Amino acid sequence: MRTAVAGFEAARAAVAGAEAELDRLMIRAPFAGLLESDTAEFDALMLSGSLCGTIIHLDPIKLVGFVPETRVNWVKLGAMAQARLAAVGAVVSGRVTFLSRSADPETRTFSTEIEVPNCYLAIREGQTVETLIASDRAKV
Fold this sequence. Notes:
Elements: H1 2-25, E1 34-38, E2 53-56, E3 61-68, E4 80-85, E5 91-99, E6 109-116, E7 129-133
Antiparallel strand pairs: 1-2, 3-6, 4-5, 4-7, 5-6
């Protein structure tokens, strides 16, 4: 009886190990997005951690810019902001979600991020925008 139970437990462990290996065959991103590039070849051996593709998440999209040090104290997290897309002139609105605490040593500017909705994916990664950030003193 003990031999049968031990055999059953060994078989159960083997099945669990096989299922774990099958799960490793599926490549999953930690977020929903768009496949921008596919570098993996079908039937190719992939090493753990190697690049197999690039997935981008565009909704919401982060607009990254820089604020001069003379105006950085005017910008607050959560402030309303607008951005005009250089390519089409369309204007989108969002909020400041990040403001760097340290300046770029060469430009003396502070990095900022503005998050805007992009449900129709009209804004592409890398597009140029001109931003206006609302402040108590003036627009930066």
